[in-house]
Amino acid sequence: MKFSLTHLQSFSSLVFEKIGFSKEDSILTSALLTRADLRGIDSHGIARLKGYYDLFKADRLNPKPNFKWQSKFPTLAVLDADKSIGFLSANAAMDRCIEMAQINGVGVVAVKNSNHFGIAGQYALKAAEKNLVGMAMTNASPLVAPTFSRDKLLGTNPISIAVPALSSRPFVLDMATTTAANGKLEILQRKNGLAPDGWIQKEDGSLTSNPNELKAGGALRPLGSFPYLGSHKGYGLGAAVDILTGVLSGANFGPWVPPFVSFLPLAENMVGEGIGHFFLAFRVDGFMEESEFLKRMDVWMETFRNSTAIGKDAVLVPGDPEWILEDERSKFGIPLLSTVVDDLNRLAKELGLPAFS
Amino acid sequence: MKFSLTHLQSFSSLVFEKIGFSKEDSILTSALLTRADLRGIDSHGIARLKGYYDLFKADRLNPKPNFKWQSKFPTLAVLDADKSIGFLSANAAMDRCIEMAQINGVGVVAVKNSNHFGIAGQYALKAAEKNLVGMAMTNASPLVAPTFSRDKLLGTNPISIAVPALSSRPFVLDMATTTAANGKLEILQRKNGLAPDGWIQKEDGSLTSNPNELKAGGALRPLGSFPYLGSHKGYGLGAAVDILTGVLSGANFGPWVPPFVSFLPLAENMVGEGIGHFFLAFRVDGFMEESEFLKRMDVWMETFRNSTAIGKDAVLVPGDPEWILEDERSKFGIPLLSTVVDDLNRLAKELGLPAFS
């Protein structure tokens, strides 16, 4: 089944209004949530609407947050998001980064007391759309074991870096620091499919291809998968993200990061408030003329896209797969699994809203 | 054979003076070069001294560089390193970042027209030693093929992030964005050893375990190794490093980055000057009290170090392996391969210096 982006947005917006978001916040949140569906990252889009609603019911998500900013330097700020949904706090944080960067060259914002913000790429992209370099990161539910560890201490902790170009659309790296994003595991769990070796480990740390081991004490593995293929590097990146987003902002970090699913209990003796994000933006014209930089980026993009492919595969640059899907889905609609549609219809019923479809 | 750090430094310093470095620059360069030997990254230390000398002979390394700075914002600067050895330009660039960060909260410096700078970690660490968060990156000789590509378009492009703690020594992530650093391949080539599947590919893009394929048109693979294990992420990280260090600074990028080995020709129609670096530092007290941040970092470090290990392995945090070696080698000396010692003795003879040993 395919649906238009507008349909996804209108429905989500009604849900957010119903639980107490202002009209303006509902519209903005819906647009940011469904950008994931448009860009083909189905696990982070409207399929999670029910999850956010459950967080609200568990009193972990504040529909009318009162943002508190602190800033001791014109280039640095920290935002207490007051249990906001992550979309609103992340969006405000990147806006602030952009503002600081436009005035002072660079802006850095850490956010605490927040919730999940969907796809990191869209916040980094906001900066690139203003011809700035943008970065966005977040920590997330602890599902990942460090190299040589049995414990789940890190989230899939994504890193996004976006860079503008002249005639090419922006470079947008948006990657989990694990081998596989959790969304891919969720799909395998639903289908009873097997995961490739290197994605997950059992509770005792040994390898498994059974995605259900994740719910039986197992863990995701960091990018690199195996020590001999450099999994300590994926672990190190996930760790750096946890520190910049969690330790620096005053949010929780490591095993204390609140899980996205509301049925799991919060950790004891929390070390901070909510989950944490980190954003950075800087001007390219601090280094050379903006037009020169943008032209150089075009050369970079074309060089990589035109490189010799192995077999019939095409060589892409980070962001290309999402741009391709964004074009396709803008035209032909967004495909949703029937289980997701059913879920949305149940949610509509519970909230007394018109059915999704 | 083991040697003291002082011995390595004195010898290197004599070599640099002999080719025209000032006394002060010789001492500083030697200290930065041999820090790699001390920290156990043998491929980046004194074993490369001859390589730098060869770059000098090929007129690609200027012993008396005249640094030219440009800065349009109090937080951003670009350095034209005038063909300097990378150690001196990287060190000056990070000093400038620290200075800008101390005054304005954050500092970003891009460097062009430079050469290789050894290990990225020590520049990031300079910031952490001042209780700042530090980052360092560089592009390097094109040896790495993007996912699905046969062409060598990226270097091993390392990323380093260092973060201070209170009683624990700093967190220091210092990683190539490839599965294996080139130094590890060089060791296998010398020994005629085999590489694990996933480290390298042949000229046609197919897998190989023969490290000599690298010299026959083959390439290193990005972190992740295989598309199904997320090699597009390692590629994306290496790409982001190339853009921040090369495109942004005005240096070369992609296939145009000058090779470290002086016997390889430079690319035609270069797109910039020399190789490029990128540095960033920011204050942690822009987000919370410095003492609180440092205490939180101690909690982070202890939580990860004390996690349940698989079997008898210990769970480490990024930087621990290097700190362990730094302690050991400070006490007991630095082991060098006899081939490296022979190489240094030949260099001494060529320059009319006392033998290394």
Taking Cα atoms only, what radius of gyration of chain A do you get, to the nearest Å?
20 Å
How does CATH name the architecture of the largest domain in chain A? 2-Layer Sandwich
CATH superfamily of the largest domain in chain A: Malate/L-lactate/L-sulpholactate dehydrogenase, NADPH binding domain
Strand content of chain A: 15-25%
Quickly name the level 1 CATH class of the largest domain in chain A: Alpha Beta
Q: Report the biggest beta sheet of chain A as strand number plus sense, adding barrel if it closes.
A: 7 strands, mixed
**Class based on secondary structure composition and strand pairing of chain A:** alpha+beta
Oligomer: homodimer
Distance between the termini of chain A: 10 Å
Shape of chain A: globular
Are there runs of chain A of 5+ residues with pLDDT below 50, and where?
none
Helix content of chain A: 25-40%
Q: Numbering strands along the chain, what is their spatial order in the largest sheet of chain A? A: 2-3-4-11-5-6-7
User: If you consult CATH, what is the topology of the largest domain in chain A?
Assistant: Ribosomal Protein S8, Chain: A, domain 1
Q: How many strand segments of chain A?
A: 12
Largest interface: A-B, 89 and 89 residues
Protein model, in words:
By secondary structure, the first copy, chain A, is of the alpha+beta class. The first copy, chain A, has three domains: 2-61 and 319-351, Hypothetical Oxidoreductase Yiak, Chain: A, domain 1 (Orthogonal Bundle), CATH 1.10.1530.10; 68-173 and 232-286, 2-Layer Sandwich (Ribosomal Protein S8, Chain: A, domain 1), CATH 3.30.1370.60; 180-220, 2-Layer Sandwich (Wheat Germ Agglutinin (Isolectin 2), domain 1). Helix content of chain A is 38%, strand content 17%. The first copy, chain A, contains ten helices and twelve strands. Chain A has helices at 5-18, 23-39, 49-57, 86-104, 121-128, 182-191, 231-247, 290-305, 320-332, 338-351, and strands spanning 2-3, 68-73, 76-84, 106-114, 132-138, 159-163, 171-175, 200-201, 207-208, 219-220, 275-283, 334-335. In chain A, the strands form three sheets. The first copy, chain A, has a seven-stranded mixed beta sheet with strand order 2-3-4-11-5-6-7, sandwiched between helices. In chain A, helix 1 runs antiparallel to helix 2 (23-39) and helix 4 runs parallel beside helix 5. The radius of gyration of chain A is 20 Å and the shape is globular. The N and C termini of chain A lie close together (10 Å). At the A-B interface, strand 2, strand 3, strand 4, strand 6 and strand 7 of A face strand 2, strand 3, strand 4, strand 6 and strand 7 of B.
